[in-house]
């Protein structure tokens, strides 16, 4: 009789441990939802910054305008997959929040060499260097575009 009771406890133990594991996992997931979604990141100092507006041109190109002067400073013609993809990602959030395209983006170079395209109207940002130096250079060239 004693062996039968002991065997029942041994067969129940995996079930009890499984329930405990599931409940612990759910508890940790619930707890993590109440934590800040992203760690606090300290920003390096700004080396340079430019406020830009991007618009579709009449031939399907992407026009880049200096927000301060209103001057068209560059045009990206052809497929331009990285530029279009980057802008599409930021525009998606603007559309979701019903923010117009007239608001400028901030192109910022940090003293640590990083280049960031940020949308102040939605707080979205894309670290352009994460996609390789060639892709970042497309935006980095906008620093002095249109300036004499």
Q: What strand order characterises the main sheet?
A: 3-2-1-4-5-6
Shape: elongated
What is the chains' assembly state? single chain
Helix-strand category: alpha+beta
Query: What proportion of the residues form beta strands (DSSP E)?
Result: 15-25%
Strand count, sense and closure of the main sheet? 6 strands, antiparallel
Work out the radius of gyration: 26 Å
Distance between the termini: 96 Å
Q: How many β strands by DSSP?
A: 6
Task: State mean pLDDT (0 to 100 scale).
Answer: 83
* Amount of helix: 25-40%
Number of contiguous helices: 3
Instruction: Compute the number of structural domains.
Output: 2
Q: What order do the SSEs take from the amino end to the carboxyl end, as H and E?
A: HEEEHEEEH
Low-confidence stretches: none
How would you explain this protein's 3D organization?
It is a single chain. The chain has 148 residues and is an alpha+beta fold. It has 2 domains: 35 residues; 98 residues, no CATH class. Helix content is 39%, strand content 24%. The protein is built from 3 helices and 6 strands. It has a 6-stranded antiparallel sheet, covered by helices on one side.
Summarize this structure as a short list of keywords or feature phrases.
148 residues, alpha+beta, single chain
How are the elements arranged and paired?
Blueprint: H1 2-33, E1 46-56, E2 62-66, E3 72-76, H2 81-97, E4 105-110, E5 115-119, E6 124-127, H3 133-140
Antiparallel strand pairs: 1-2, 1-4, 2-3, 4-5, 5-6
């Amino acid at each position: 009789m004693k062996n039968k009771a002991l065997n029942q406890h041994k067969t129940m133990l995996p079930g009890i441990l499984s329930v405990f594991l599931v409940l612990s996992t759910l508890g940790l997931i619930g707890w993590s939802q109440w934590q800040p979604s992203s760690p606090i990141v300290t920003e390096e100092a700004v080396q340079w910054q430019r406020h830009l507006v991007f618009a579709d041109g009449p031939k399907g190109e992407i026009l880049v305008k200096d927000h301060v002067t209103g001057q068209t400073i560059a045009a990206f013609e052809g497929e331009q997959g990285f530029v279009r993809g980057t802008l599409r990602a930021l525009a998606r959030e603007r559309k979701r929040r019903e923010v117009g395209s007239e608001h400028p983006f901030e192109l910022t170079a940090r003293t640590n060499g990083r280049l960031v395209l940020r949308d102040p109207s939605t707080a979205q940002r894309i670290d352009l260097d994460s996609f390789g130096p060639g892709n970042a250079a497309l935006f980095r060239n906008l620093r002095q575009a249109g300036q004499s």
